[in-house]
Amino acid sequence: MIPMEHYLVVSSIMFFAGIYGCIARKNLLAILISIELILNSVEINFSVFNRYLYPEQMEGMFFSLFGIAVSAAETAVAIAIIINIYRNAQNIDVRHIDKMKG
Questions:
Q1: pLDDT for 7-59, tens place per residue?
Q2: For 75-83, which contacts have Cβ atoms below 8 Å and span 24 or more sequence positions?
Q3: Which of 46, 31, 52, 6 lies closest to 95, judged by CA?
Q4: Please, what CATH class does the domain formed by 4-100 belong to?
Q5: What burial class does residue 5 get, using C-beta atoms within 10 Å of its C-beta: 0-12 exposed, 13-18 middle, 19+ buried?
Q6: Which residue from 17, 18, 19, 50 could staple onto 38, CB 3.0 to 4.6 Å apart?
Q7: Sequence ranges of the domains in the chain
Q8: Residues 6 or more apart from 9 whose CB is under 8 A from it?
């Protein structure tokens, strides 16, 4: 069986890569992918802690499934917003979104 620490290291790397992507990127799609990376690392943590702390229960797995559903809904809404921004501004760069004001 793989030790819990290995899963937590992978999850931490994913989380901090997502944080870096949110801070460093200027493209809205890249920021959305970084947010998805953060959410996936949290879902890994739910599953791992459930597996190692309470192996006979399924709460962590249900939280992960709920998180995946929320993540899919969030992605659909975000992509719709990004498409509207692109139609109006002809650009999805974060620096140029203020042109949509007034």
A1: 999 999 999 999 999 999 989 999 999 999 999 999 999 999 999 998 889 88
A2: 75/32, 75/36, 78/32, 78/35, 79/32, 82/28, 82/29, 82/32
A3: 31
A4: mainly alpha
A5: exposed
A6: 18
A7: 4-100
A8: none
